[in-house]
Amino acid sequence: MTNEEAQKVLVITGNTGTGKTTVARYLAEKYHFPQVVTHTTRPPRAGEVDGQDYYFETEASFPKNHYLEQVVYSNYHYGSSYEGLNRAWEKNSLITIVLDTAGALTYAQQLGSKVEVLYLSVENAADLTQRLIDRGDQLERIQKRIQSAEFIRDLSVPDALKQYAHMIINNNWVKTQKEIDRIIKNMLK
Ligand SMILES: Nc1ncnc2c1ncn2[C@@H]1O[C@H](COP(=O)(O)OP(=O)(O)OP(=O)(O)O)[C@@H](O)[C@H]1O
Ligand SMILES: Nc1nc2c(ncn2[C@@H]2O[C@H](COP(=O)(O)O)[C@@H](O)[C@H]2O)c(=O)[nH]1
């Protein structure tokens, strides 16, 4: 386990399709920040690997883990377990996790100064649907998702996070990478 005092978690939040997973992958590749693997009852998308993208659970297995927080998002359960969090911290003191805004809020409340938040958005919310289509999500699932209360909620950052979340408009990937590099440089000072 890494030194507990040095442990930090970079919470990457924002609406579906804003690029949270893309950012987490970039941080893993460029900075070797491990990503916390969370649990879900959602079926895997093409190419997703159990234990890598998520721990894919059944309705029966999901409640057996020990969660720091859990949510229902567009009819599926999602949760981040203490085990998953510690597994990432065993590898490095600075780690990332991808969460909806409700999860981000819980992390900020529970872990306080250990948490740094990135809130991603796009200029035009209509672009999100197109991104999900391009990603290969099923049309029926996209429709359910964009009609969900969670989608509407995640279009803006929660008031409690507004003051200190790093706000990133991810319309241009090259620009986003530069912004992230700047944030990381400041964090590592
Ligand atoms: N700046 C960008 N410009 C255009 N497309 C992008 C950009 N960033 C990410 N994408 C693409 O948008 C799609 C959604 O990105 P990603 O899966 O990272 O989003 P997400 O926020 O993790 O979504 P979800 O919450 O639904 O899992 C992907 O196909 C990704 O390649
Ligand atoms: N609060 C939590 N949110 C989570 C967790 N794992 C993922 N997520 C978020 O759920 C939605 C949907 O994810 P998708 O992979 O089905 O597109 C998205 O906002 C994720 O960030 C979690 O453990 N807790």
UniProtKB/TrEMBL annotation:
GO terms for molecular function: GMP kinase activity. The keyword Transferase applies. Essential for recycling GMP and indirectly, cGMP. Belongs to the guanylate kinase family. This is Guanylate kinase. Signal peptide: none annotated. Residues 7-185 form the Guanylate kinase-like domain.
